[in-house]
Amino acid sequence: MEQHVLRGDVLRTGERLVVACSGGPDSVALAAVLAAIAPHLELQLSIAHVNHGVRTSAWQDECVAMRVAASLGLALDVAAPKPEGHDEAMLRTVRYESLVEIARRRGASAVATAHHAEDQTETVLLALFRGSGPDGLGGMTARRELVPGVALVRPLLRIAAEDLRYYCHVSGLPYAIDPTNEDAAMRRNAVREALASLRPAFPGLDEAVARAAELVASERAGTDRAVLRRRVRDLLRDEASLSDVDFAHVEAAARTMELGGSGRFHMKKGVTLRIETGRRNEP
Questions:
Q1: Together in a domain, 77 and 191
Q2: Which of 61, 112, 160, 231 has the most beta carbons within 10 angstroms of its beta carbon?
């Protein structure tokens, strides 16, 4: 998992990060993973926990965050804001305000949250059900500006929740379970329950949605990768027999071109694309 995050190109070498830790398995795993890779990227970490105090189990969550911070040898900041309402949107707004305040006090350039692959799937589907356009269907971005001077980073967007729980188990890390996750009256939880019944029939569901969201977001932003991806597609589209080339092969070729690399790519049986120094040659 550490290698996945390192390859994700979301974190910046030498930056100071505030890691949001709710006490749940996802955020506990995030804190541990970032602590493990911190020496490689020269990261300066601290942990932040926001206790809204709206549940009796909230104090259990805070205790878990304290124990995790102590076991990782990281400083912990606890915020106890008093939100005017208890609806999820209000709590989220207050939570991010608290995290930004902590980040500024710590001199941090980013706040890291533990949104994972299933969260991304739920976000994209909720946007679709609301009738959102391409911006909503692009889902959550791995890194964006939260407020001027403070970024929001999500290093785990392509990692499954099950893998995060397993990481906690094998690492002997404590975590708490949020009972509100079982409240089907909340729209996100209703979507979560429906997706749970679909995953056995569609085992690649979350990966496919994450890939689609990433494609939509990169096309909207007009990134270099998106331009190169279109170039590869256009080259393949010239030959009708190549129209069914798997996305993974297209993406690998586009990434190599983006990095100015070279290599041979087996696009499908009998078809090889050769790239030299980021420029396409005839197969």
A1: yes
A2: 112
- Domain limits for position 92: 2-198
Report if residue 216 sits inside a domain. no
Residue found by looking up tokens 């890291």 in the block: 112
Distance CA 211, CA 247 (A): 9
> Would the CA dihedral through 270, 212, 232, 248 be positive or negative?
negative
- Domains in the chain, number: 2
pTM for this predicted structure: 0.81
**What pLDDT shows up at residue 164?**
96
Q: Which two tokens stand for residue 147?
A: 């407020």
Kindly give the parts of the chain with pLDDT less than 50: 278-283
State both tokens at 109. Answer: 């350039």
**Predicted local distance difference test score (pLDDT) of residue 82:** 82
Which of these, 271, 260, 267, 241, lies nearest to 280 by C-alpha position? 260
**What residues does 153 pair with on adjacent strands?**
112, 143
Fill in the amino acid letter for 195: L
CATH number at residue 40: 3.40.50.620
Strands 76-79 and 44-50 turn out to be parallel
**pLDDT on residue 242:** 55
